[in-house]
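Input (GNAT family N-acetyltransferase):
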Amino acid sequence: MNYYKVLNKNFFSEGNFSIVPIRYEDHLDIMKWRNEQIYHLRQNKPLTIESQENYFNDIIASLFDQEKPNQILFSFLENDECIGYGGLVHINWIDMNAEISFIMKTDLEKHHFHTYWQIYLELIEQLSFNELNLHKIYTYAFDLRPHLYEAVESAQYVKEAVLKEHCKFQDKFIDVIIHSKINKR
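Output:
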């Protein structure tokens, strides 16, 4: 398993769930989920096996040894099986904030979306606030999935901003909604 140099602790768990430094063995599942859920991601075309392997070998591999990486990604596991992935992206080490990234296995969304988001947020907060001592973490989401806002708001994230008509989606401009949580630990 890989370890992030920037972290003293690389494994975070809650019951049967854990996040571990992103595993290469999960890269094809992650590619599949991203392609299935491309509509709500900042991804402009489907990923290919070649592009995914290049991303893992060129970008992801270099993150582990960096003192201040711009992203820290994890595999999200239930009983050691990968059911999602995410982490902190667009990390701002000066202002001590980062955007939360997370997607789960597509066929789990219908019945487990809220629960898995809740568990994931607890784990990412352990990493963000206890390990990295970040001041603030936030979500940046296209206004396409109202159930996402319910999940993050029930975890005490505050709706901080609506960026009006900020992104173009299917030839229509849509809002971006930002929810955040400040470190009170």
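The longest helix spans residues 109-131.
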